[in-house]
Design a protein that fits this description.
Length: 376
């Protein structure tokens, strides 16, 4: 380039983007859903509307949930806790910008709107920065996300209140899960992580391609696109084609049975799932049949051992029965159970979660010393 020529950036223009092949997991993925940010939390609505009589006094012990507005499991928990006179507050990623919140660093208290509260139990679920309604490409948006990420991590990691699923704060990716499951005697699919899926055939000719991270992309806050497992097709990928980011290539298994098992405390609650392919749960949920079943005895102890190892109080496990042996696929730490309950017409998991949270809350309140309560 000569001294007199200008680069596109000098002219305030952008260079034409280089044409790149579509990543394999973005091919044919047309699933799209908008997640509304309308709050449906019972306690939030009642307290904000002034429908709850409050008396001045010591800070109120409470359960704090970090999630997003569409978390129906937590909407149900809010109502159940209200019926048992347990206060719950929500900090949702898609509604957190400008929320009136003060967290005291030297004492376990928060000021939330006009209330002074003492968290005793915190549950971080769908509190993902992609849901924060800002443009991360701007300085303002990057600033807001960075601050909320730091504060969310700090709230989750503090040791002056307890957490649900303590192990979640240290990360539990799918690949770590497979190692843990194998260590307790569960069979796992043969798996590789690669940027060249066309060259990888772990366990045989038929393979499934999966995302290493989340099953959903949220490039724009509230607009979610599916990123679901699909068969590896060498005709689309090419043997030597390279992906822009690693993917999971996993052995395909012909299963006799599929289970989703929810572990709540020391309880294991099972659902049999009937579907034709791995993505059907998301792309065609109405065609998926779900029925409650007893969890096989040989599964209960390994799953409880995994929960103890990973410090999970509430979790959802996906398993296949292949030639008489149980195969571990993954554990869902957020363990969204309402959809399974609705399809199976049962509320056993919800009841177990509500009981567990209330019992844990009561234990923590009772265990607090007289001196601590008096110091608030």
């Amino acid at each position: 380039m000569s001294a007199g020529e200008k680069r596109p950036a000098d002219l305030g223009e952008r260079a034409e983007p280089e044409l790149r092949p579509t990543p394999v997991l973005l091919q044919g993925q047309d699933y799209f859903v908008r997640a509304p940010d309308t709050p449906l939390d019972f306690q939030e609505r009642m307290y904000q509307a002034g429908l709850v009589e409050e008396e001045p006094g010591d800070p109120v012990p409470c359960v704090v949930v970090l999630s997003r507005a569409t978390d129906m499991e937590m909407n149900g928990l809010s109502l159940a806790l209200a019926e048992r006179d347990v206060r719950m507050v929500r900090i949702d990623a898609d509604r957190c910008v400008g929320v009136p919140l003060t967290v005291h660093a030297d004492t376990p208290l928060i000021e939330f709107h006009r209330w002074l509260l003492r968290p005793v139990l915190i549950w971080r679920r769908h509190f993902d920065m992609a849901a924060v309604p800002v443009d991360p490409a701007t300085v303002y948006g990057a600033y807001v996300r960075e601050q909320w990420q730091a504060v969310g991590d700090w709230l989750t990691a503090r040791d002056d209140w307890e957490q649900v699923n303590t192990g979640r704060s240290r990360g539990l990716d799918r690949l770590t899960q497979l190692q843990g499951a194998a260590s307790v005697g569960l069979r796992v699919p043969r798996t590789s992580v690669t940027t060249m899926p066309g060259r990888s055939r772990p366990g045989g000719a038929q393979c499934i391609v999966k995302a290493v991270g989340h099953h959903m992309l949220e490039p724009e806050p509230g607009a979610l696109r599916g990123l679901f497992p699909q068969p590896l097709d060498i005709r689309r990928t090419g043997r030597d084609a390279r992906e822009p980011a690693p993917v999971v290539v996993q052995q395909h298994l012909d299963a006799d049975e599929e289970l989703r098992v929810f572990v709540v405390g020391e309880r294991a609650i099972g659902f049999r799932v009937h579907k034709l392919d791995p993505a059907q749960l998301w792309v065609d949920p109405e065609s998926v049949a779900v029925e409650p079943v007893e969890v096989p005895e040989e599964l209960v102890e390994p799953l409880l051992r995994l929960c103890r190892r990973w410090e999970l109080d509430v979790a959802g496990f996906d398993l296949l029965r292949v030639a008489g042996a149980w195969v571990f696929l993954e554990v869902n730490v957020n363990s969204d159970w309402r959809w399974f309950e609705q399809r199976a017409d049962c509320e056993e998991v919800s009841a177990a979660v509500h009981d567990w949270v209330c019992s844990r809350f009561d234990e923590l309140v009772v265990s607090a010393t007289v001196g601590e309560w008096g110091s608030w």
